[in-house]
Amino acid sequence: MHKPTIEDVAKRANVSIATVSRVINRQGGVRQKTEARILAAIEELNYIPNAVARSMVKKTTNTIGIIIPDVNNPFFPTVVSGIEQKAREKGYFTFLCNTNESADTERELLTILLERSVDGLIITTADEAGDQLQTVMDAKIPVVAVDRAIKKFEVDTVLVGNVDGAYQATRHLILQGHKRIAIICGPQNTTPGYERFVGYKRALDDYGIPVVQEYVLEGDFKEESGRRLTKQLYQLPERPTAIFSSNNLMTVGCMKALYELDWKLGEEVSFIGFDDVDIATFVNPPLTVVSRPMRKLGEVAFEMLYERMTEGWDGAKRHYVLSPELKIRQSCRLK
Amino acid sequence: MHKPTIEDVAKRANVSIATVSRVINRQGGVRQKTEARILAAIEELNYIPNAVARSMVKKTTNTIGIIIPDVNNPFFPTVVSGIEQKAREKGYFTFLCNTNESADTERELLTILLERSVDGLIITTADEAGDQLQTVMDAKIPVVAVDRAIKKFEVDTVLVGNVDGAYQATRHLILQGHKRIAIICGPQNTTPGYERFVGYKRALDDYGIPVVQEYVLEGDFKEESGRRLTKQLYQLPERPTAIFSSNNLMTVGCMKALYELDWKLGEEVSFIGFDDVDIATFVNPPLTVVSRPMRKLGEVAFEMLYERMTEGWDGAKRHYVLSPELKIRQSCRLK
DNA sequence: CTGAAAGCGCTAACAT
DNA sequence: ATGTTAGCGCTTTCAG
After folding, report:
1. B223 lies in which domain range?
2. What is the pLDDT of residue B294?
3. Do residues A288 and A304 share a domain?
4. A146 near A124, Cβ under 8 Å?
5. Are residues A193 and A84 in the same domain?
6. Residues of chain A contacting residue B141, judged by C-beta atoms under 8 Å apart
7. Positions in chain B short of pLDDT 50
8. Which CATH number fits the domain that encloses residue A85?
9. Residues in domain HTH lacI-type (chains A, B) (predicted)?
10. Is B281 in the same domain as B192?
11. Does A36 map to a domain?
């Protein structure tokens, strides 16, 4: 009464296991009648091929690992669903792992994925330095970095134009007459955090507006920091007339703070955020944001990985940069 | 230059592979000195045990499958993170699969999970009848149903009190003096959809309020239906003074409709939703909701599954019902 | 305390 | 067109 194996099927159909294997894998070269008999046996026994055994001999699992730093940030699930859709189409399955921004957790997960012999890895690392990827590189497993680059190793990378997006956002504010523009930055040791600041600075520079230290605050990309820093901005003797928030979660925190402070969005303070958020159209007035093609990011990532996995392509690593888009709603008003 | 195997380690440490296996699995009975030598070899070779090979002989993969119907509904990712945390603690890994409410997709996914020999399955099925689970039952894999029961088979089940929650919500509205209370139902062929309607009806009955057909609308648990049905309600010659929405996504749709219709929340129409939503505190006034212990749901589900997997416990199937909680904010006003 | 050897279920030569 | 057989990397008796 055990799970039926290929041997059970073979016996029942009066053929060898090799022949059964041939029909399971649609390799052809099996007589119609024989095939029919085998198919019938499979049906009768409810036989389901054992993928573990197959992986054992083929040395490939048709499984990829996905590592993201924060499941609670809706950005990542969206990217992941882009990856998964493409993966499923190609017959790949995914292990989705969350590091909570911890480099140690990332290290552990990497080991587990290696043990499980994933065929490839898509990662938004918690530590851009990248030493933790040494084992993966040793194992010669294809890797694609998403949203955050890896310093130590050359790997395929897919990013959005952070500098570009932040520049557009800041310029939008400037063109409306704002001069006292604050930025709530992400961690400056991460690519997105740093680059978005660069875009902000570049726009100010281009329009001859000095960067004021009090208006440049560093958060951690989490909601609470957005809230705290907005309050800090409010305390300033000379309040900014506009705020640029570097990511979605901090934007949510900002909104909560504005509400608590009764600091009137759109009237007393203009606002623009990096990344579109669910709440964007529920606050009043709706938020102008820099939006990223999140699903697309995931789709591109899988496609790059797929090429490496199948073609064993060992060419130069590629950097793919997608363009962000300014979605103008009503949270920015003429100054 | 291939991936090092247990044999490479054995050679290097001058022992047999059996001994290496013993130390990898911490089975003891190996002399200190030998063990040290083996550990050193492992270290030097960067040896990582191959989980596929292990699964092959142990006939267990330490992997469970999770099937959910809709990744875009934030309810499920939250449940999933509850499952995953517990799973990780016990050394289990998860395959997360999304059916998009399609019974066919669910069938396919089930087959894949079976091929991959998952040790257990946690599922919120797209088809409560449950015929598609036949193969899983045949394979004698432990199953836990979450949020939706399975009719055809006895399996461990963890739910929240849908009737209870809907009853509380409706009563809350009634006690504020509302009599014209509309409900936006979920699909009546699903447990949550049906039970929530039952709770609504029971409350009306208990307080002697007749159920008016025009006020009972059936949506599909997706955002757009919430929006459409709210508009339908607005067209009624005698509009309801309160609306009860049966799930989070439809609540979002409702809010959009209210905004578009300029139907004043809290003033012209009171509102209460099943499930807490991110936007609940961003709309004005903030939404009163029935909230469910989502993470807990996942945690309980894994724990039940774990018992079955490890103890091979074959006792009676259990039904675990968690209690919902009314979170009173400000979207319901005295009539 | 350690080793030899028999599989786990399947694929992929190589024969026939 | 089909069968035989040698592994894949590991765990687990069973012997020493």
Report:
1. 162-292
2. 95
3. no
4. yes
5. no
6. none
7. none
8. 3.40.50.2300
9. 4-58
10. yes
11. yes
Q: pLDDT tens across A215-256, in order?
A: 999 999 999 999 999 999 999 999 999 999 999 999 999 999
Partner residue opposite B115 with nearest CB, options A48, A135, A282:
A48
Residues A138, A20, single domain; the answer is no
Nucleotide nearest to A58 (CA to C1'): C11
Residues B220 and B278 in one domain: yes
Give the type of residue at A252: V
With CB atoms and an 8 Å threshold, state whether A281 touches B98: no
* Tens-digit pLDDT profile for residues A100-119: 889 999 999 999 999 999 99
* Residue (of A305, A300, A306) closest to A320 by Cα position: A300
Q: Are residues A283 and A298 in the same domain?
A: no
- Cα distances from B159 to residues A41, B17, B163, B164, B167, in angstroms, run 40, 48, 11, 12, 16
- Give the whole-angstrom CA distance, residue B98 versus residue B66: 8
Is A111–B48 a contact, with Cβ atoms under 8 angstroms apart? Answer: yes
What are the pLDDT digits (tens) for B142-194?
999 999 999 999 999 999 999 999 999 999 999 999 999 999 999 998 889 99
Tell if B59 CB is < 7 Å from nucleic strand D: no
Residues A289-335 pLDDT 10s = 999 999 999 999 999 999 999 987 778 999 999 999 999 999 998 87
Can you give the length of chain A in residues? Answer: 335
CA nearest to A24, candidates A12, A10, A11: A10
Asked if A155 and A299 sit in the same domain, the reply is: yes
Whether B331 is in a domain gets the answer no
Cβ neighbours of B279 (radius 10 Å): 20
- How far, in Å, CA of B50 to CA of A55, rounded? 11
- Residue A1 confidence (pLDDT): 62
Which long-range contacts (C-beta less than 8 Å, at least 24 apart) are formed by B18-24? B24/B49
Domains in chain A: how many in total?
A: 3
Taking residues A167-177, what's their average pLDDT?
Answer: 97
Q: What is the pLDDT of residue B1?
A: 62
**Which residue of A lies nearest to B50 if distances are taken between CA atoms?**
A115
Structure-block tokens of residue A296? 């697309």
Q: Is the CB of A37 under 7 A from strand D?
A: no
A231 shares a domain with A133: no
Residue A334 in any domain: the answer is no
What is the side-by-side order of every strand in the sheet holding B270-274? B216-218, B181-185, B242-245, B270-274, B288-291, B325-327
Integer distance in angstroms from CA B8 to C1' D15? 24
- CB B98 to CB A84 under 8 A? yes
> Please, which residues bridge with residue A181 across strands?
A242
Please report, rounded to a whole number, the percentage of residues in chain A having pLDDT higher than 70: 100
Residues of A in Cβ contact (< 8 Å) with B117: 50-52
Q: How far is the CA of A20 from the C1' of C12 (A)?
A: 13
Task: Single out the residue of B262, B247, B253 nearest to residue B230, CA to CA.
Answer: B253
The count of residues in chain B is 335
